[in-house]
Amino acid sequence: MSTAAVSVPSTRAQTKRSSLRRSRRWALIASYVFLIMFAIFFLIPPYYMVVTAFKTDAEVAHMATNPWIIADGATLDQFKILLTQTDFLIYFKNTAIVTVAVVCITMVVSVLAAFALGRMKFWGSGLLATGIFLTYLVPDTLLFIPLFQIVKAVGLLNSYWGMILVYPTLTVPFCTWIMIGYFQSIPKELDEAALIDGAGHMQMLTKIFIPVALPGIIAATIFAFTVSWAAFVYPMAFLYSSDQQVLTVGTVTSLIRADVYKWGMLMAGALLAAAPPLSSTRS
Amino acid sequence: MAEVTLRQVVKKYGDVEAVRSIDLDIPNNEFVVLVGPSGCGKSTTLRMIAGLEEITAGDISIGGEVVNDLPPKDRDIAMVFQNYALYPHMTSFENMAFGLKLRKFPKAEIKSRVEHAARILDITELLERRPKALSGGQRQRVAMGRAIVRNPKVFLFDEPLSNLDAKLRVQMRTEIKRVHQKVKTTTVYVTHDQVEAMTLADRVVVMNNGIIEQIGPPQELYHKPRTRFVAGFIGSPAMNFIPCTLEQHGDGLRVRLSDKIALPVPASRTGRYRPVVSKELTFGLRPEHVTEPHQGNGASGGDSNFAAVLDVVEPMGMETMVYFTIAGTEVCARVDPTAAGEAGATMQLHANMDHMHLIDPATNMVL
């Protein structure tokens, strides 16, 4: 009798458990289906880029071949021509200089600003933090008009140094905002402990806050890097000489002449240009 | 090593007065516990001593020097926080050494101090671990180690055991007491737990609404509370408070609690209480002083006995708490488990009137 009394609830529990398992399995299957669909959707352009970059011009131009496969054998011709007969390496160098400088400026400014706004309570700090974020909401397609006047006034029109001046308008507000969140999430007792241990504000920042907020700093750095590397509107508006140009605009303007598109080299250039941001995201 | 002095210290946040002109003298090496309910100003007082809060008025001195305008690092104090506040990216060793490194101590000195503190706290084998890899109790030890290595004038503890589970809290309490006995240093300890206060302190400072209600050794606070607040706050379960009137009974006095219950005031106190005869007062008696009548308390048939119908009975193992009402007020008694009746039963109880208190409800002062 006691066995029967025990076995009924135990059977019920088993049924419930197996039903939970089944529903979890279906949820997983659905998740995978959607994830695979999204992955395929987003990987099609890069795949097309890779495939085209390794084709000959003849194969690219031949309308009858399948555009999704390399039918005539892979070649590095597009890369060779791109690197030897165009200004691609100059664009790459300019972009690297601009990006490294912008990332450094952005991280110094935004870490200091975020530390002040997030941890050192002063009159108007909340309003200032909101104001900084609001500037991020102004699109660069609007900002480039007044910025043009500023860049011209400081004599940096058609100079990649001008980009080092204007890109932080895109990167600093968002990075500061990310870092404010990170710094605010650190318990206030940590800076009080540091104060009692004898740290000044700068030591507190460098020895406690930066190491503790390292994940946030890395995220902000990657953001500043990708924004600087991929910026298009500002160089399009402010740079016109080939020797000052950056990758995004330089590649497009030099490889598209009127209605002639050098697809193979465009894709090779895009592939090379995408490599640094991709590797930074991976790290 | 130093004495800490607070003179008419005030802390205001806008219009709110968190600490209201308190005076406190803590002699060298004394272990003082600030205790009180949430919002009573005890943590604010500690933080003002630490220099983490500016004071609105008054003076704070450490070792005879007024430190009002000194930053925390120049006050030569060390603090242990409720959430430990260990630097998560540093090992236990680095956490403990951080303050010494900032003060540019030689490496050998740092190593020897950290190792010495680690031996005192029994955390030598944890020195290479980061806080994430430590349990709550171990983290608290490292936090204490960080304070000890500095060899400061004053140790400040801000509710250091509140994040620990009940068992570990008791262990760490003993540990803190042991460490204080080894490393004699002036210590100010904040807690809302009166048991912690009683067990750790040389002197307890009871705070309420930003003022100091009473300062004294634990036993004095327990037996001779000056205010109703202290009488109710110190001791667990809390003291029973019953409205009463004091009446003349022959040559002596009686405390009338209800129509049926009137308890005789001990002869030694009649002189003290005679001026308040026939006044509305509050009678205070701790649960441990309301027990079953037995030969031991000399009350097998005395006037201090009364009968009560038990509402709730809580067996605790070595004792049983029984709850009943007198004139609508709930009263708790601590009785022998073998003597306790069941809920609903009538039980004969004895009030040990040698431990009674009378409180003036108008001033809340113990008479």
Q: For the residues shown, what is the average pLDDT of chain B?
A: 88
Oligomer: heterodimer
For the report, how would you describe the main beta sheet of chain A? Answer: 2 strands, antiparallel
Succession of helices and strands of chain A: HHHHHHHHHHHHHEEH
Number of helices of chain B: 9
**CATH architecture tag of the largest domain in chain B:** 3-Layer(aba) Sandwich
The overall number of domains of chain A is: 3
- The N- and C-terminal alpha carbons of chain A lie at a distance of 64 Å
Tell me the greatest interface.
A-B, 17 and 23 residues
Question: Proportion of β residues of chain A?
Answer: under 5%
Instruction: Write down the overall mean pLDDT of chain A.
Output: 88
What's a concise summary of this model?
The complex is a heterodimer of chains A (283) and B (367). With 283 residues, chain A is an all-alpha fold.
Give an overview in words.
Chain A has 283 residues and is mainly α. Chain A folds into three domains: 42 residues; 31 residues, no CATH class; 197 residues, MetI-like (MetI-like fold). Helix content of chain A is 79%, strand content 1%. Chain A is built from 14 helices and two strands; from the N terminus they run αααααααααααααββα. Chain A has a two-stranded antiparallel ribbon. In chain A, a hairpin with a 2-residue loop joins β1 and β2. In chain A, α9 packs across α10. Chain A is flat and about 70 Å long. Chain A starts with a helix and ends with a helix. In chain A, 33% of the residues are buried. With 367 residues, chain B is α+β, with helices and mostly antiparallel strands. Chain B folds into two domains: 230 residues, P-loop containing nucleotide triphosphate hydrolases (Rossmann fold); 127 residues, RNA polymerase II/Efflux pump adaptor protein, barrel-sandwich hybrid domain (OB fold (Dihydrolipoamide Acetyltransferase, E2P)). In chain B, 24% of the residues lie in helices and 33% in strands. Chain B is built from nine helices and 22 strands. Chain B has a six-stranded mixed beta sheet, sandwiched between helices. A six-stranded antiparallel beta sheet of chain B has the order 13-12-11-14-21-22. In chain B, β12 and β13 form a beta hairpin. In chain B, α2 crosses α3. The relative contact order of chain B is 0.11. At the A-B interface, α9 and α10 of A face β6 and α2 of B.
